[in-house]
Write a structure and sequence with these properties.
The protein is mainly beta. Helices cover 8% and strands 39% of the residues. The protein folds into two domains: 7-68 and 126-149, Chitinase A, domain 3 (Roll), CATH 3.10.50; 73-120, Thrombin, subunit H (Beta Barrel). Bound molecules: zinc ion.
């Protein structure tokens, strides 16, 4: 069966940046599962999935516009260290949680001062062209419940 709206897709992937360095990979873990056609994965990858069947292997290179967007330089801010949650001592590159008016957000620490810390609230992949090496493991019809929930259940999907 081919990937189309309201199918559940299981796939393995290796994600590389423009230099070819591996950023993350599902290999060694369960495959990732998603409900197709509901915006559950980045748009550029979802587009490439259409029509593929179990066993298909392909490489998709996705521009920032169809991945995590361009970087927003105004998202770099200096905030009091006490507002960062997740660790006692901070170092450059660590990921922290910050409560904002829009709810909790993940930020990346870029510079540590005594009382103030510079953080970057951009998604770590913002502004990056991403290359996915994909192998489709399984494609099946979604259940009515999955379509209603808007996500995949079971292996690699939502557990609840
Ligand atoms: Zn559900």
């Amino acid at each position: 069966m081919a990937i189309a709206k309201d199918t559940v897709v299981q796939f393995h992937y290796t994600l590389k940046d423009a230099d070819g360095s591996v950023i993350e990979s599902s290999h060694g873990n369960d495959p990732m599962a998603y409900l197709h056609g509901h915006g559950n994965i980045i748009p550029g990858l979802e587009e490439e999935m259409v029509g593929k069947e179990a066993g298909a292997e392909f490489v998709a290179t996705v521009s920032p516009e169809k991945a995590y967007g361009q970087r927003d330089e105004t998202a770099i801010q200096r905030i009091p260290a006490k507002h960062l949650q997740g660790a006692k001592k901070w170092k450059k590159g660590m990921v922290a949680h910050v409560e904002t008016d829009q709810g909790p957000r993940q930020v990346t620490v870029i510079k540590v001062g005594k009382f103030m810390i510079d953080v970057d609230a951009n998604h770590p992949f913002a502004g990056k062209e991403l290359t996915f090496e994909v192998k489709i493991e399984d494609v099946r019809e979604a259940t009515a419940e999955e379509v209603q929930h808007g996500h995949a259940h079971g292996l690699g999907g939502h557990q609840h």
